Amino acid sequence: MNINITIFNPLLEYGGLEIATTKLGKELQDRTFNVDVVAFPNSRVEKLAETLDLKVKHIKMKQPYFNFHAAYNLSKIFNQSGTDISIVGKSSLLSTAILAKMLSRKKPIIVFHQQMQSGLNKKDLVHNWIFKNLDGAVVLNNRMKEDILKTTIIHSTKVRVIPYGIDIQKFKPIPEKKIELRKNFNLPTEDFLIGCIGRIDRQKGQDVLLNAFMELENKENIKLVFAGDSNDEEYFRELNNTITENKIEDKVIFLPFTDKVPELMNCFDIFVAPSHCETFGLVIIEGMACSLAVIGTDCGGVPEIIDSGKNGYIFEPKNSNDLSDLINMLYQNRDLLDKIGKKARYTVEQKFDRDIEINNIIKYYLELLSNKKT
After folding, report:
1. I want to staple 205 with a disulfide (CB 3.0 to 4.6 A). Which of 2, 21, 158, 274 is the partner?
2. Neighbour tally for 14: CB within 10 Å
């Protein structure tokens, strides 16, 4: 398949969005696409791309919106690489990418991979120009599609819902190694463990889970495990003060950030994602893939993943009472816990396998290229 793709990622920012678009490039390259990554020189994006054996082209870019100099340089990359499709993961870069398309001979398709829901009204003259000239957009769930159609002038036929997928061979249940893995993380081997993975941040709702934990009917053999680094020291102190005041220091465990998420997931008996708002909830499907009963909040894209009562449970954001009741129910009914976990794994296999995601993305790209030719 001789299709050339350029990933436009030339800023110094480095987070989940930048990582996801670069890793997508690796997945496409493994499926015989020719992939270039446009990165800021000596940036973390460049280093990641090189680690993944992706070709890197350089553009220095400090002003993303309508950067004519960068657009001119990008148009030359389009021409040299014979770019058929350019992937843009940041909305602020769309105007420059579209300008580059107009300046180039190749006129590649510009596809926006939206990973965050904004909710901002973008029907001014500038954004109307951008979304009129955008060729396609990939969003993670139906709520994001409704949002982009409501806040921009993009036509509905240009928007495709393609949820994240994960490597289900990497994220899988390994109950036979549960005790060994718990020892590796210095976790209790016999207790019932409630897990929560994510940065320690007010929006992630660790305080809600902590309050729910304190409301449990019987905490004798239950421990609560938080895994993730803190970027809000005041909030972290508040959590620790609550733990100290309620004399549950021996019941709550904090672990630092780890990239061994599949292994850590297999240490837990229940996984809770108590975020006040979650655009998608990748960590939720990671837990489900490990056959965990997952409890998430009724917000963002979570209800499109969890069918409450069938493959997991959802509760209203910030409602620690309801969360406590759900944990109590699952703790007291191990047959239900096991049944929900097996159904969760089946759901991920059917809907959220990484191969399914990539195949759907490729199918969408081919449709866009076919429409361009006609």
Report:
1. 274
2. 16
- Rounded CA gap, 296 and 114, in Å? 22
Per-residue pLDDT band at 119 (split at 50, 70, 90): confident
Closest of 36, 15, 16 to residue 108, by C-alpha: 36
Q: Which residues pair with 195 in a beta bridge?
A: 225, 271
Residues 127, 8 share a domain: yes
Cβ pair 312, 288 in contact under 8 A: yes
CB-CB contact of 358 with 28 (8 Å):
yes
Provide the residue range defining the domain that includes 303. Answer: 175-351
Spell out the residues 6+ positions from residue 277 whose beta carbon is closer than 8 angstroms to its own: 203, 297, 299, 300, 317
Beta-carbon contacts of 249 under 8 Å, excluding residues fewer than 6 positions away, are 243
Same domain, 235 and 329: yes
Q: Are residues 156 and 235 in the same domain?
A: no
Which 8-state DSSP code applies to residue 108? Answer: P
Q: What is the pTM of this model?
A: 0.87
At 1 the pLDDT is 62
For the record, the structure tokens of 38 come out as: 């446009």
